[in-house]
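Researcher: Going back to the complex we discussed earlier. I've cleaned up the inputs and rechecked each line, so this should be the final set. Can you rerun the prediction on the complete assembly and write out the structure?
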Amino acid sequence: MSTVIGDITMSVDGFVTGPGADVEHGLGRDAEGLHAWALDSADPVDREELRSLTAATGAVVMGRRTFDTVDAPGGWSEELGYGADQDGRPPFFVVTSSRPDRVRLAGSHDFTFVLDGPAAALRAAREAAGDRDVYVMGGGMLVGGCLAAGLLDRLRIHLSPEVLGRGTPLFAGAGRHRLVQRDVRVSASATHLTYDVRR
Amino acid sequence: MSTVIGDITMSVDGFVTGPGADVEHGLGRDAEGLHAWALDSADPVDREELRSLTAATGAVVMGRRTFDTVDAPGGWSEELGYGADQDGRPPFFVVTSSRPDRVRLAGSHDFTFVLDGPAAALRAAREAAGDRDVYVMGGGMLVGGCLAAGLLDRLRIHLSPEVLGRGTPLFAGAGRHRLVQRDVRVSASATHLTYDVRR
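Model: Rerun complete. Updated structure for the full complex:
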């Protein structure tokens, strides 16, 4: 059975984007440092974080705003792992209340739009993933919501050295959860934390 | 010149106590795991965190609620480092709006009550500390307030594997700050993060 992993980059004060996040500024504004470990780092620890994530992924679940951001022109970064090798690309399940009119990446990526909520999306993703992992890659509302609903087996937080003050909070309304610290990897630009979520 | 270090234990969702913190429950309720690394751990990494903090401390600054908690009967834990060796005990500066009527620990600890705010307390503490470090040890409002006011050189966060959902937030109103990840140490029960605060 696959493991369901919420995987997201967070500031030390708990934000997963800067302020003013929208389709054109998926990561918010004035928060470039937040994702520096993924976008700008040559540190082997950071590269291995991305590589290991990609290699283990059997399916990806994302929220609608995250989808809109990656499907926008110029939105998807080939360097983020899944883009480089089409054969190795996992299927993507998008939690949304309505299908988009057009999908820019439809020719190269396998998107399924799930209209009946995160739990249904995770069921479909588990089925598609086989023995590999299901990654809930964002945004913050979806990862936090899956944690709140008891749907995550594991939480992987890439902790960036930023105090943003404003933005999209990861844990708003997530409630009380005991974690088990499973693995911590340290690069020059982030601390990569992996926790098991205790049931 | 001494370094001013904000040092505090925090949950993954940014709380430094559980809900319902008061003088008798200084760490809040239902949040025992938060401080397990300091109170219950035999892990050599955790012990060294406490030891190195104590050894480098030239003066300690704390808020009034933290003082009331440690000065309450049974409140001060000798195991938290400063209690064990009276000669090695640093002076303590308490930020408060009024002097307490009595100080239980007055015979064994050197408390100064500073009535004109955190910056004044830090000035006095720096003077007392000489070349050693000044530790702002809590509570969360004081550490977050010192960060917001640009008074911290360094932020040391002991990150515990807990999502508390409620409690005393560290960063409420702290604003935007760029950090530099300086040192990360990992024990079985916490990740000890040290950041320089960029000016």
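Model: Worth noting: The CA atoms of residues 185 and 192 of chain A lie 5 Å apart.
Researcher: Good, that matches what I expected from the previous run.
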